[in-house]
Amino acid sequence: MTTARTTSGITLVLAVLFASPLAAQPAPPVVRIRFVGPAAARRPQEPTAIGSAVTLDRRAQQRLTRAREFLDQGKFIDALPVVQQALAESSDAFIPDPKDPQRLLSMKGVLEGWLRELSDEGRRSYELQFGPAARQMAKEVANDPLGVFRRFPTLEPGADAAWRHAVRRMDEGRFSEADRLFERFRATANFRSRFEPELSVRLAALKHRAGESNRAQSLLEEVAASHPQGKVRFADRVFDNSNESRTWLQRTWGRSKSSLSLFAEPGWTSPGAGPERRSLVASSRMMAPVEWPAGGVPLVVDPLKYPTDASDSTFDRLLRNTVETLAALKDKDRRLWWPRFQPVVIGDQAIIRTLGNVRSIELSSGNRRWETLADDQLERLLVRDGAEPETSPSFRHYVDQRMWDDATTSRLSSDGALVFAIEDSGPAHPVDNAQARQQVRPVEHNRLAAYDGSTGKLVWEIGGPSGENALAEADTFFLGPPLAAHGRLYIFSEKSAVVRLQELDAADGRTLWTQPLVDVDASWSIVRNPSRRLAGISPSLSQGYLICQTGVGLVVAVDVVERRLAWIQELPQPSTDAGFQAMPQPVETSKDTGWVDGSPIIVGDNVLVPRAGGHPLYSLSLRDGSRRWSLYSRGLPSNARWLAIDSAGRMLVVGERSVRAYRIDGKEPVPVWAKETSIPTSCGTGFVMDGVLFLPARETRVAETTGLILALETATGALLKSTPVLKGRAPGNLVPCHGLILSQSVERLDVFAMPEWKSAPAIAE
Fold first, then answer.
1. Which residues form the domain of 96?
2. Candidate from 250-254, 426-430, 514-518 with smallest mean pLDDT
3. How deeply is 173 buried, as exposed, middle or buried, from its count of CB atoms within 10 A (0-12, 13-18, 19+)?
4. Are the CB atoms for 331 and 323 separated by under 8 Å?
5. How far is the C-alpha of 363 from the C-alpha of 358, rounded, in Å?
6. Average pLDDT, stretch 480-486?
7. Do the domain assignments include residue 662?
8. Residue 305, in any domain of the structure
9. Is residue 184, in this structure, part of any structural domain at all?
């Protein structure tokens, strides 16, 4: 595992973990440290983290060091309770590697290693001290078998619980989680003997399905060699390393596959289409022809009027004129102002965020099915007291923020039943409200709301201000929409300048687990730094690892299966100034340059991390966080904004007027096409389907804008088709559903038929 590199003068400010005697009180929560930057200016290539990793304080480290000494001396009665108390903590922390103080390791991972290395006498002592508690816990938490394993990872009750969990995950098709746990059992001698030969046969099946045929064959050879007759009974059959057995694996667990799996429709329920953020989608049946309103569904409407009121209100005209004025200014500016809004699809409806609320639109007709109440912060600005509508520059700035900059509020996510939205984030800068003679200022809290996807009913909400009627998780600022996976939500939140990963129950919003990630420098708190509160960051998930782009220069991986920290990596951010800068640049999504989405994209063992400012793009190892390569502006299309992955693992990078493709399975990214493909001006995010990249674009000739849908073949870079879809305006971010393409811009929601294209002749790569 790796850690963020520290510069000269960086010091560790430590707090107390185990402040009270072990036996007197339960273990207090893990606390944090802070990297304090030097007063001198930073060089352009030096790290620019504006936060610090979660680690133990000096006193806690001394206690663990003493426990290690007791273990070496055979004083198990003194050492093991200290180890077990730390393992019982709900959250993990980093500790320095004794061999390399600049390298941070998971505290729980290190402690588990100590337990696995115990002598026979040490294992007997550990069993005597904690075996009864482990067996009792296994009886009481049958609905959370991994809880026993996380607390007692080397005792038989924990191993048995984890084995049942892994087998169930394999049966459910959650193969990566099962693979991880089976590999753990093979790495522990007593567990390996306990579960063989079924362990190796199941692991061989998983490796075969993942395309690791050599690994699968070696596992089968080990199974055959370990039995005198070369045969073993498993799954009601005699099993060995014969062709017949390998054929059985293929028939039972599916063919070996090396290409990336596609996300099946319907299910475009989060930005990037799925938990790995690759923007892939599988083909699906064509929906019946739609009767869509001419000119699309307008989205800039008065959120305060009654839903059935068809009149053109004063606030309708105010908001419409404000957005039209801002859009015209951006067109003249000739920079890439991409909208932040992107719909999610549940069945036959598109759920969209507008300037003032969340709405459901029927795909078959364009009719509104339901909508939520108006955003409280916007309602405070649109004071209805008979005075003239708000027209101040600061109000226009707020509208500008919500339409083009605010990824935190504008993006939605869903688990297929509920829709999750961040509400009441408010302005990133103070906004003057002349009518109310007050100023609406940034706040330290917002709300996470869950709406029923069918009816729009508010099912639950958390966050908001503290007070008499405070909700759960009051005074918390949620940094972006949650990632929904397997009945759980994973979301970043900030409270008291600490960025946390929270695991919530999707059904009711209960917090199941919280892992502090980083401490934020006071000068970059969520109230003082507009770019951080607008970035809309969310985790990405693959193979049981949550990859957390924290927004303060640190990327943290969390093992969600075992609820422990895996690794941390600091990414250098080059200065945008010619000279040195006293303060680091934030990790943000700029409104006119840089990546529109900073969420990590996971491709196999590659974690692609887009960073704004200078366009660096980093590749990290999913397993240990080590840096593989980086791409800067010279190696990317001009003004690169967005990237996606095709089913062959190619990385597609979209710039202002060009697209490039790269192979990313080696030590360095390698261009796939002979040259980059020139395109009209891109104007939003797209998707990949059947080896074709679909993109929205606009073309302006003689002051007339034509909106286009482009289709590029990912293998060759050929522009297969450019389909005009709109006159006088550009499309927005694209989402596929049922053979149709949804487009959400700042002003309208449109639907288009999927363009037909003819593939170009294949070329050798």
1. 11-253
2. 250-254
3. exposed
4. no
5. 16
6. 91
7. no
8. no
9. yes
